[in-house]
Write a structure and sequence with these properties.
Layout lengths: L2 H7 L2 E4 L5 E4 L5 H8 L1 H6 L2 E4 L2 E3 L9 E6 L6 H20 L4 E5 L7 E6 L6 H17 L4 E5 L1 H10 L3 H7 L8 E6 L2 E4 L13 E11 L8 E10 L2 H17 L1 H7 L3 E2 L9 E2 L1 H21 L2 E2 L5 E3 H7 L1 H5 L4 E5 L2 E5 L4 H8 L11 E5 L2 E3 L15 E11 L4 H18 L5 E6 L9 H18 L4 E3 L9 E7 L5 E10 L1 H5 L4 E2 L5 E2 L2 E10 H12 L12 E5 L5 H13 L4 E3 L6 H10 L4 E5 L1 H6 L1 E6 L4 E6 H13 L6
Parallel strand pairs: 1-5, 15-19, 22-23, 29-30, 29-31
Antiparallel strand pairs: 1-2, 3-4, 3-5, 6-7, 7-12, 8-9, 9-10, 11-12, 13-14, 16-18, 17-18, 19-21, 20-21, 21-28, 22-24, 24-25, 25-28, 26-27, 31-32, 32-33
Length: about 650
């Protein structure tokens, strides 16, 4: 027997979640493993995972590793269910409109599924209702999903006979030598890698969400297709719970709350470039002030740098070759210039304006400069994906020996900020070298090792995010979960050996020789625009009192008490409380409702009794009625809430 044949005949070891090892014949499927454990599991199984990758129950297993089986009780089963519901969607459309060509589905099935169709018109809401009804009929048929491996010629013949031009084109995307698989349920057949559930009955509930037009392959020069989005779960109860979460998310949507609270607007004259109104600017500047205080505490010096710079700078930094599709360009005096997408090259220019000594390091530059990056119109949304923004950006120039201490210090600041805003769950990831990068492997090895040492030295839990580093260096990313359980990537600490080398940066060491500094890129909130969008949704627009654009509103019960209301407002204003007086000739109940809708933390009701006693009747936006409070006592309550940036009122 040849060595290859012997290797092929060797059994494989699958390590189950409880630590036990199950040995199976090479080429066995996950379904075979489920049957060997028990018939109940085999019947309930939906999918599997091998070494962190999802696996179809029918796919032959060719290697050993950590192995899990999923049933409908496992959260991961949703990916299999939604991917399978995607095929049911395409089946339903083809049953309702025979001859409709289908393109491709969605790669990420963590929440939704989708399919693109060559259809002569946009789908209507009535169409979606018909399709959803047809999908439910298909689910009741309880067809099995079948996995078929075919040759390229066999696949071409099948789709050629079906007149599926789009599938024939997609077939060319599959590299030579890669296994080609088709999935079939009932009469429906599609080119697909899987994975899928066993039978359609394991798709417990489906819901179509919306439809839109899209370009074939995302290219605006190609034909327009019609896309349908949907979601699916293992049960109606799970779908109902998801819809409730989505309703809550819609109620918190910053794109709705922002204009309602008069914080910002988006105008067609400047696409994807927000206009911050006075109230929004107060919140925006409040974020900047908070970060500036931390900069003072931790030894950062603020700099101001130009927004338009000669294109040669971006060749030197490597951004032109690696980032130019996201940059804006202009011409000045017959030379090409670029609008700044990031601050790091300008900080390198400042660093090299003078001779530096090891005694000067670390040098920490902070920059709130406005940045511009081109984002395609199809991906920009609200404040979370814009074309012009500001970062709480900073760069640390230090010796290699100083890296662990500097990284640890940056983590201290970042985690303090998230705690201040009430983000209790923070995931830390170490993102390693991407495929598209600059610099030698030796430098990347040193950079990645330095960040690992900094993380290990703190004893924090972190995950490895392979291949997601910046093109110039590895990074530590910080993800937070909001009150709805959604994850957002905010802060980042990036280690860079490339930029100092490209800009020929140096310092004189203790030995009298020149050495190259290490550069650490740091953002904590990230884009202020994006963070503000996230914060609006996290708080439902009810900002912490210290950040609220209007911290208190005085509500006179009638016009007779407007003067006293203004007197109270004057005392609060002197104490640096952001206060307004609602002196409109409206009923008190209406004014209270308006203040609550505007999420004002403190409502101060004043009438004859309050004027005589020198008090206010304090009501919180939570609906709690505190009652009569002297103005000075009120200030004693507000001062620590605002100065200490407390979350509670």
């Amino acid at each position: 027997m040849s060595s290859e044949s012997a290797a092929a005949a060797e059994p494989i070891d699958l390590t189950l979640p409880d630590g036990s090892v199950r040995t199976v014949e090479r080429g066995s499927t996950a379904f075979d493993v489920a049957k060997s454990i028990g018939p109940g599991l085999a019947k309930a199984a939906i999918g599997a995972e091998l070494e962190g990758s999802f696996l179809d129950l029918r796919t032959p297993i060719e290697r050993s590793g950590a192995f899990r089986l999923f049933t409908s009780r496992d959260q991961e089963s949703g990916d299999f269910i939604r991917h399978s519901a995607e095929h049911v969607l395409a089946d339903a459309v083809q049953r309702l409109w025979p001859g409709t060509e289908i393109d491709a589905g969605r790669q990420d099935h963590s929440e939704k599924f989708q399919y693109d169709f060559r259809f002569p018109r946009p789908f209507t809401s009535e169409d979606l209702e018909k399709i959803e009804d047809e999908m439910r009929k298909i689910l009741k048929e309880n067809a099995s999903f079948e996995r078929m491996e075919v040759t390229r010629d066999e696949a071409a013949k099948i789709f050629g006979e079906l007149g599926a031009e789009l599938k024939l084109d997609r077939l060319q995307d599959i590299p030579e030598g890669e296994t080609i698989t088709l999935y079939k349920h009932g009469r429906f057949l599609d080119l697909c890698r899987g994975p899928h559930v066993q039978q359609t009955k394991q798709i417990g509930a489906v819901k179509l969400l919306e439809s839109s037009a899209t370009y074939y392959r995302g290219d605006e020069s190609n034909e327009v297709l019609q896309r349908i989005y949907g979601t699916a779960f293992g049960s109606k109860k799970e779908l109902d719970e998801w819809q409730a979460r989505m309703e809550e998310a819609r109620a918190r949507d910053h794109r709705r709350l922002g204009p309602e609270l008069d914080l910002f607007s988006l105008q067609p004259e400047a696409p994807a470039s927000p206009f911050f109104h006075p109230k929004g600017a107060r919140v925006y500047n409040g974020l900047v002030d908070f970060v500036r205080e931390l900069h003072d505490e931790f030894g950062f010096e603020e700099v101001v740098t130009p927004q338009i710079l000669d294109v040669d700078l971006w060749h030197t930094s490597g951004h032109y070759e690696n980032y130019r599709e996201n940059m804006y360009f202009t011409e000045v005096d017959e030379r090409q210039y670029a609008v700044k997408p990031m601050n790091c090259p300008t900080h390198c220019l400042i660093y090299r304006t003078r001779l530096r000594s090891y005694r000067d390091l670390p040098i920490r530059y902070a920059d709130f400069g406005r940045l511009h990056r081109y984002e395609r119109s199809g991906v920009v949304t609200g404040l979370t994906r814009v074309r012009t923004f500001c970062q709480d950006d900073a760069h640390v120039f230090c010796t290699e020996e100083q890296v662990p201490q500097q990284v640890s210090m940056l983590m201290d600041i970042i985690l303090r900020i998230y705690d201040t805003f009430g983000f209790e769950e923070v995931l830390i990831e170490l993102s390693t070298r991407p495929e598209k990068r600059i610099g030698s492997d030796e430098l990347w090895n040193r950079a990645e090792a330095s960040l690992r040492a900094a993380l290990d030295g703190r004893g924090v839990d972190y995950e490895i995010n392979e291949g997601d580093g910046a093109f110039y260096g590895p990074k530590i990313d910080f993800q937070v979960k909001d009150v709805l359980g959604r994850s957002w990537q905010l802060g980042t600490v990036q280690l860079d050996y490339q930029m100092p080398e490209r800009f020929d940066l140096s310092y004189i060491g203790a030995d009298g020789d020149e050495h190259q500094p290490v550069m650490i890129h740091r953002a904590m909130l990230g884009s202020l625009e994006r963070f503000l969008g996230i914060l609006i949704e996290h708080t439902a627009g009810a900002f912490p009192a210290w950040l609220a654009p209007v911290q208190a509103v005085v509500l006179p019960v009638s016009e007779k008490f407007v003067d006293y209301a203004r007197h109270v407002a004057g005392e609060l204003g002197t104490a640096k409380v952001r206060v307004e007086v609602d002196d409109r000739a409206e009923k008190l109940g209406y004014k209270i409702r308006e203040a609550q809708l505007q999420k004002v933390p403190y409502m101060l009701i004043v009438g004859g009794r309050e004027e005589e006693a020198g008090t206010v009747n304090l009501r919180l936006r939570t609906g709690e009625e505190v009652g009569a409070v002297e103005v000075e006592a009120l200030l004693d309550r507000l001062r620590p809430v605002i100065s200490e940036r407390r979350l509670e009122l």
